[in-house]
Design brief:
With 53 residues, this protein is mainly α. Helices cover 87% and strands 0% of the residues.
C-alpha cells in the first residue's frame, strides 16, 4: 500500500471501526489461502471464523 492509500485507510478506519475489523478478517483469510494448500486453508479458515465470532 502506498502512502496515500495508508492515509485514506487510516481515516476510514478511524470513522468506521467495523470496516477496520472486516478488513483485518479479509487479510487473515487471504493470508491463509495464499500460503497453504486448499485442505489446510479450509481448516484454518474455520478456526479464524470461529475465533472472530
Amino acid at each position: 500500500m502506498d502512502c496515500k492509500s495508508k492515509e485514506r485507510a487510516e481515516l476510514l478506519f478511524e470513522h468506521y471501526p467495523l470496516l477496520k475489523a472486516a478488513y483485518k478478517h479479509v487479510m487473515q483469510l487471504r493470508g491463509i489461502y495464499k500460503n497453504t494448500s486448499m485442505d489446510k486453508a479450509k481448516t484454518r479458515n474455520g478456526a479464524v471464523v470461529r475465533k472472530n465470532q
